[in-house]
Amino acid sequence: MKITILAVGKIKEKYLREAIAEYSKRLGRYCKLEMIETADEKTPEQASGITEEGIRKKEGERLLKYIKEDAFVITLEIGGNMLSSEKLADRIEKLGVSGVSHITFIIGGSIGLGSEVLKRSDFALSFSPMTFPHQLMRVILLEQIYRSYRIIQGEPYHK
């Protein structure tokens, strides 16, 4: 299985880059992992709805360029479906069994994902109704993907 993490913005903090590197290394046993970062747009303070929509559109166009036609796309959205770790593992396993060989997870920028990206989504996933920094979300997502593969393989993992 190939897993692509497609995210808006660069990781600046060293501790987050180190955590991402650690989970990427661990995941190497289970899948082929690809991490793609696209440029983010500066969002002015007190931006209007129209300005924010324009920013989401520009960021979305950059994201869409990297989505492969055969990929199953999972967007991270506050209003998406909340799954337990076991249910996420089950979904990943069932996708593989059904012939899906590529899953792309998309993490938007600070103001979310544009409508064209949302239309391309096959499944909307939420980790919480809370808002997390999108840089930290990469670490959380990678940890949950790693946990999923441990569950799928029947291997122990801290609960």
Describe the structure.
The structure is a single chain. The chain has 159 residues and is an alpha/beta fold. It has five helices and five strands; from the N terminus they run βαβαβαβαβα. It has a five-stranded parallel β-sheet with strand order 2-1-4-3-5. Helix 1 runs parallel beside helix 5 (134-152) and helix 3 crosses helix 5 (134-152). The longest helix has 19 residues, at 134-152. The two termini are 25 Å apart. The model has no long low-confidence stretch (mean pLDDT 95).
Topology:
Blueprint lengths: L1 E7 L5 H14 L4 E7 L10 H16 L7 E11 L2 H13 L4 E6 L7 H6 L2 E4 L7 H19 L7
List keywords for this structure.
159 residues, alpha/beta, 5 helices, 43% helix
Task: Please report which band the strand proportion falls in: under 5%, 5-15%, 15-25%, 25-35%, 35-45% or over 45%.
Answer: 15-25%
Largest sheet: 5 strands, parallel
Mean pLDDT: 95
> What's the order of the H and E elements?
EHEHEHEHEH
Order of strands, widest sheet? 2-1-4-3-5
Q: Low-confidence parts, pLDDT < 50 over ≥5 residues?
A: none
- Radius of gyration, Cα only, in angstroms? 16 Å
Give the tally of β-strands. Answer: 5
Shape: globular
Backbone structural class: alpha/beta
Helix content: 40-55%
How far is the first residue's CA from the last residue's CA? 25 Å
The tally of helices reads: 5
Quick recap of the structure?
With 159 residues, this protein is α/β, with parallel strands linked by helices. It has helices spanning 14-27, 49-64, 85-97, 115-120, 134-152; strands spanning 2-8, 32-38, 72-82, 102-107, 123-126. It has a five-stranded parallel beta sheet.
